Amino acid sequence: MLEIIDVPSEDVAALTLKQEGHFLDFKDKRISPGKLTRSLAAFCNSDGGDLYVGIAEESGKFTWSGFADPEDANGHIQAFEAVSPFGEDLTGEFLRTPGLDGLVLHVNARKSRFVRSDSESRVYKRVGAQNLPVSSEESILALRRQKGLESFEEETVAVALSEVTNSLPILEYLVSAVPTAEPEVYLRGQYLIHGQRPTVAAVLLFAEQPQAALPKRCGIKIYRYSSEEMSRDRLVQDPITVEGHLYAQVYSAVEKTVRLISEAAFLSDDGLRTVAYPAETLHEIITNAVLHRDYSVTDDVHVRIYENRVEVESPGRLPGHITPANILSERLSRNPFVVRHLNRFPDPPNKDVGEGLDTAFEFMRKLNLKQPEILEREHSVLVVIRHESLASPAQQVVDHLNSNESIRNQQARKLTGVLSESRMQKIFEDLIAANEIEHVPGTAGRGYAYRRKRS
């Protein structure tokens, strides 16, 4: 039995003013339960969402029109259970509010690790406020890959077996991992060869130049910009392309990224300045992008270095039930063959699944920098590493003045990441009112400066 929750009338008013969209659907209780399962299947196959049964649309407005009692919704609950049992991808409750009749059935559908179907075994996905059918073999395969149920890494590549059985990477790998094995015997035993063709995983791991066999699918491009925005005319130099088998590629990309950042000096009023990021954070995030990207997507991993941040963008959305909110606590690998075998190289770049991001976050905290931000886009995952302190802007100003004579508004904005001149001025005023700082006598105009309060 689902719980009955009392909801304040003002919350209900706010709810019914919302518009249906990618994460929200209102349905009349009179619609057949089977039709409603399309929304739940679509939510589970996409990014999750909320379905409210008992909120009807009348004259362009949503109005409360609930079930007389919980038993009246039994048919709906039974139909919804066929999509996914409650407690797996679905949670539910009845909503009750003063002054309005009936109970609204609220079902929250989470992004599922499985492909879910409606009551007629049809597959849907959520796009905006629509439930779109997924019917072709290609689109269902793409959805299964997004869920991590199938992986492009298991498909074969039309290249000679010798590309992976007689290469320097496989010989070096076997010397350290399985010194008594013959390359072809080992690769077949690990299901990295099917028939007379190597798999995508085998090519990525052991071909000397995977990019020749899988063009535009497994390179890394590194860009350095001279500003805080991405623009072709702000590129400091031509993008650097990093190729090679994955083990060498990861270490090379990290080394080049760290070097470019160390060389990057940005011009401010005080002259050239540099920023620094934990090398461990850069290593783990670049490694994670290479390991867990979707290799069926024709694109490279992109590393962009800006004045105030580094961005790492990997092709493909997050696999299965993984979301930006649960990525540090949940575990799912899109490319388990790549992950497992890369981990068996000497001094492997990757730890167990999920631990790399934990390390990336930990090292940012150690430097008192804000945690990386993980954003899921339509066709990619973007990780943003900002050079911003966890301390408040006011505390950063005080800390700066503890070891420096003075600070100006523009300096403070560069230091704190506060973009607005007026907002920074308000922070100064608050610090003056708190007797923490004072105006430096004799400074005015663009040179107007502040110092620690003197007795």
UniProtKB/TrEMBL annotation:
Keywords, sorted A to Z: ATP-binding, Helicase, Hydrolase, Nucleotide-binding
Transmembrane parts of this sequence: none
Keyword Thylakoid: no
InterPro entries associated with the record: RecG_C_sf (IPR038475), Schlafen_AlbA_2_dom (IPR007421), Schlafen_AlbA_2_dom_sf (IPR038461)
Gene3D superfamilies linked: 3.30.565.60, Schlafen, AAA domain
Domain Schlafen AlbA-2: 20-134
Catalytic activity, EC: 3.6.4.12
GO molecular function: DNA helicase activity; hydrolase activity
Enzyme superclass (EC): hydrolase
Superkingdom as given in the UniProt entry: Bacteria
UniProt cross-references to PANTHER family, sorted A to Z: GLPR-RELATED TRANSCRIPTIONAL REPRESSOR, SCHLAFEN ALBA-2 DOMAIN-CONTAINING PROTEIN
Protein name: ATP-dependent DNA helicase RecG
Organism of origin: Cellulomonas iranensis
